[in-house]
Design goal:
Blueprint (H helix, E strand, L loop, with lengths): L1 H36 L7 H9 L6
Helix pairs in contact: 1-2
């Protein structure tokens, strides 16, 4: 019984991890699109650049 519960917990954690990774990728895409839409002279562009810089480089 304990082994089956452990397998279930591992599977649930794996699913949660995949969902979180998908959410991070989606947020990165949205942040990049905002950065693309803002012109270089726009005052909010530096904030968008800061947000994009917070994402891991492997995205």
């Amino acid at each position: 019984f304990r082994l089956n519960k452990t397998y279930f917990d591992i599977d649930k954690l794996s699913t949660d991890k995949n969902d979180a990774e998908d959410a991070v990728r989606e947020a990165y895409k949205e942040a990049r699109s905002v950065l693309t839409l803002l012109c270089n002279e726009h005052t909010l562009r530096k904030y968008a650049q800061t947000i994009v810089a917070k994402f891991p480089p492997e995205l």
